[in-house]
Write a structure and sequence with these properties.
Blueprint (H helix, E strand, L loop, with lengths): L5 E4 L19 E13 L6 E5 L7 E9 L5 H8 L3 E7 L9 E7 L8 E2 L5 H8 L8
Parallel strand pairs: 1-6
Antiparallel strand pairs: 1-4, 2-3, 2-4, 2-7, 5-6
Length: 138
């Protein structure tokens, strides 16, 4: 028997932010957080977040939701996230059901011009505070 895969979402894939058909098999989510730095990345199709695991002077609790991956096709999810992200195991706080690690999409490259730090670590809250719109896909 294989262990279930848990996914930590902190941005446009969080419940209520977008409608993504490729997440149809996703299990129920619960609130959780990871330690890191969060940045908002501008795009012509809206803003999306970038989780950076180590960034001196910017570390905070990044707020998100934790899900059992269920029947989600991880290859499709990886393709959606793109080459600037790497899916990797990260320590998760506020959740004990499946251990203390989940897969998260971590930004691995240089941050682009126009990236804005989200000091409080909550992308959904940042969208509401700034009036900006979330990335809406292709």
């Amino acid at each position: 028997m294989t262990q279930p895969t848990y996914l930590f979402f902190y941005g446009v894939l969080r419940e209520g932010v977008g409608d993504w058909p490729f997440l149809a098999g996703l299990g129920m989510g619960s609130q959780a957080s990871v330690e890191g730095a969060l940045f908002a990345i501008p795009d012509a199709k809206g803003w999306y977040p970038a989780l950076v695991l180590t960034r001196a002077g910017h570390a905070t609790n990044v707020v998100g939701s934790l899900h059992d991956a269920g029947e989600v096709d991880l290859a499709v999810l990886d393709a959606f996230e793109g080459p600037q992200y790497e899916r990797m195991a990260v320590p998760v706080d506020g959740w004990q059901a499946g251990g203390n690690e989940a897969q998260a999409y971590v930004w691995t490259g240089e941050l682009p011009e126009g990236a804005e730090p989200i000091h409080h670590g909550d992308f959904v809250r940042w969208l509401a505070e700034t009036g900006r719109r979330a990335y809406a896909g292709e």
